[in-house]
Amino acid sequence: MNIQVKSGEITKITTEVLVCLNYEKDKTLDKHIKTLDRTLGGQLTDLHKSGEFQGKPNQTTLVHMNGKVSAKRVLLIGVGPREDLTLDRLRQAMGIASKRVRQVKAKGFTCVMPDVPKSVGQTELVAQALVEGAILGDYRFMEYRTDSSRNEKNLQTCTLLVPQGPDLTEVKEGANRGKVLGEATCFVRDLCNHPANVMKPSRVVAEAKKIARESKIRLKVLEKKDMEKLGMGGLLGVSRGSIEPPAFIILTYSGGRSTQKPIVFVGKTVTFDSGGISLKPSENMEQMKADMTGGAEVLATVRSASRLKLPMNVIGILPVTENMPGGRATKPGDVLTMLSGKTVEVQNTDAEGRLILADGLAYASRLKPACVIDIATLTGACVVALGQFAIGMLGTDESLKSDLRKAGDGAGERVWELPLWDEYFEQLKSDVADMRNIGGRGGGTITAALFLKQFIGEYPWAHLDIASTDWSASERAYVPKGPTGIGTRLLIQFLLNKS
Fold first, then answer.
1. Is 280 a catalytic residue?
2. Active-site hit among 38, 68, 280, 498
3. Which residues have a Cβ under 8 Å from the Cβ of 314 and sit 6 or more positions away?
4. Which residue out of 200, 307, 354, 489 is catalytically annotated?
5. Model confidence over 473-487: pLDDT tens digits?
6. What's 425's domain CATH number?
């Protein structure tokens, strides 16, 4: 989608659809829309008075102009009471706008920059949220559809109209950031929507190679022989049942000083998770093509750091494999020696994400990082604990967790902290090895994080469990049915805040 920012009079802008965001319970229209209403002879005010349009969150009313102004149509979208407004309400409104505009076969639309209370955010953040919502709401994955009647084209343009000039520079900056973040999330959705017979480990490597063409990014890929030499028993053990060879991807973005310690992201990248010998039930197993969401989000984050020209060093690590049953597959009861040298008894081969992440975290500790954040569709227990609207967060550093919480609140991808108490490690003790890879039914998200903690070294570390948010059973304002990409904008916003 082409994103534009223009200044001009609301009654003179030529556009297929003019989007106006309106508050609920306000006695008068937004100050910028009053001018339009006067030109229309009070038509918009009449809609308010009649109750046809009340400004409730995501409520829409489409009005044809019939030549009264330069815009062909006006689309009113509610954002709820002014005092309850958030950046995410604005994202939702723009997600709805994209869908509604596409329904009327328009190629693009113009949104009037709303009058927003300063407590919601600076002009730059408002513009960023609006553009994110427009791009995310327009997302559809149509690559494998052959029915042309369902293959409607996506929107071509979204323009932010600034009725007054002084904020134009800030709006442009925010709109550019919103475009990068929105496209990053759509990139993740695409990768996770591709079926596993297409999105194999080799395809993930190919995607990493494309990203390495971006400014200031270098790529290193470890192959199976390299993993064997290093002793990556976790990744090698999980990959044994698959005919697809594993890969260990390291993407390095150097935007800061050479002496600056890097922020390291580690993403679980299981391109298909059958459960291995501990085979999953067949119901919903097709969703396991998205078990690579964490890794896809790390790819998108490194790419975005380059496109935003962030003045910092960022490293993305992706242990990539399938988890399949087979004659050579790891069996329950097998013992693996990890990259760190610690031994793990595998009591359930479906607890594979923590095994590959353990090697990723141990490798990260060799890079002398400023901090490490891992992100993974790790536990079904997180879905039980938090439902679909919160990302599970655990970690060792209060400052890092606070920064992630702030970034999540701003991005509309909120985190909720769970305890990381050592008492839970009792559940991971093994009779034959240093630890086992499962800890029983109770506190499954916590015991999984405690497992990872054994491999992190002394640096600040946080773990994000996105199993609760990475797949949506239904379509929402700017969230599609299927892979959501939730967590992508959280990571990028974290970097933006740091920069």
1. yes
2. 280
3. 252, 253, 255, 262, 263, 264, 265, 301, 302, 305, 495
4. 354
5. 999 999 999 999 999
6. 3.40.630.10
